[in-house]
Amino acid sequence: MSATGSPALYPARDYPPPPRVHWLVLLCAFTLIKILVGTYTPPRYHELVDSIAGDAWAFYLCLWIRSLDSDARSPFWCDVYVIVELAYAALDMRQNPSRTLDQAIAFLGLSSAVLGIVTIFLIRSDLERHYNERELYGLHLSGVMTFLFSFLYFQYHLYDIAKWREKERWANPNRPTFS
């Protein structure tokens, strides 16, 4: 906000830029990690290592969101999701678990899935709030696309925003260049 109480003309300069990674590069990285885990990790540990590798981007994105807004809800729920998912993956490695442990594993698996969906939609909410109230980019994310493609979909838009911010940085500072 400017001193007059209205949004600043160039508020993007006050916030860290989004990750400038093309969504296709992210997809290739996810695929490569999946192949490497499947090839070089003992089968017993596939799910645990795959969970750690897959959660890395979610965790990174939420750390970046926290740098945009310390009151954002997605970083907290991402932390909870990662802990529950890792607990599920670690317990699921056990051979011949008892019936009670089997039920706990099933509960953690279901909780992990629900928390993953909640986290994705909280990230969506935090991104829309930031890019519609603070940086005024006009970001609108589809619920269906968020559900189906989550981080790839977010990165598709964040890459565009990163390019927009780069153009804005080099543009004439006397006039707004919202393209």
What is the secondary structure topology, with strand pairs?
Layout (H helix, E strand, L loop, with lengths): L22 H18 L5 H23 L5 H19 L6 H35 L9 H28 L9
Helix pairs in contact: 1-2, 1-5, 2-3, 3-4, 4-5
Characterise this structure.
The protein is mainly alpha-helical. The chain has a domain at 44-163. Helices cover 69% and strands 0% of the residues. The chain is built from 5 helices and no strands. Helix 1 runs antiparallel to helix 2, helix 1 crosses helix 5 (143-170) and helix 3 runs antiparallel to helix 4 (99-133). It is elongated. 21% of the residues are buried. The model is unreliable at 1-10 and 175-179 (pLDDT under 50).
Key terms for this structure?
single chain; 179 residues; mainly alpha
Structural class: mainly alpha
Structural Rg? 19 Å
Largest sheet: none
- In DSSP terms, counting alpha (H) and pi (I) runs of 4 or more, how many helices? 5
Q: State the shape.
A: elongated
Helical fraction: 55-70%
Following the backbone from N to C, one meets helices and strands in this order, namely HHHHH
N/C terminus separation: 21 Å
Mean pLDDT: 87
